[in-house]
Design brief:
Structural class: mainly beta
Radius of gyration: 15 Å
Oligomer: single chain
Strand content: 35-45%
Helix content: under 10%
Number of helices: 0
Low-confidence stretches: none
Distance between the termini: 35 Å
Number of domains: 1
Shape: globular
Order of helices and strands: EEEEEE
Mean pLDDT: 78
Strand order of the largest sheet: 1-4
């Protein structure tokens, strides 16, 4: 596992701040990943990426942008 200096761990739970990251080894079994995002404001966005197999050059990213009825992004 690799992580940035702004990442902290306590009892198996990780906290990430700003542009911090964690790279876990490939999982050998089915696992459930859950997370809670706390942002400083309603306008903040966040994202995460999943690497495809053993090829770290192939990955999938999801970026979450804030939306409401007055601010729809396409």
């Amino acid at each position: 596992m690799e992580k940035s200096t702004e990442t902290s761990e306590s009892n198996g739970k990780y906290s990430l701040n700003n542009n911090s990251y964690i790279l876990f080894n490939r999982l050998n079994t089915h696992n459930k990943i859950s997370f809670t995002v706390k942002t400083a404001s309603n306008a903040d966005k966040f994202g995460f990426s999943l690497v495809r197999g053993t090829d770290s050059q192939k990955y999938y990213s999801m970026i979450i942008n804030p939306e409401d009825n007055n601010n729809k992004r396409k």
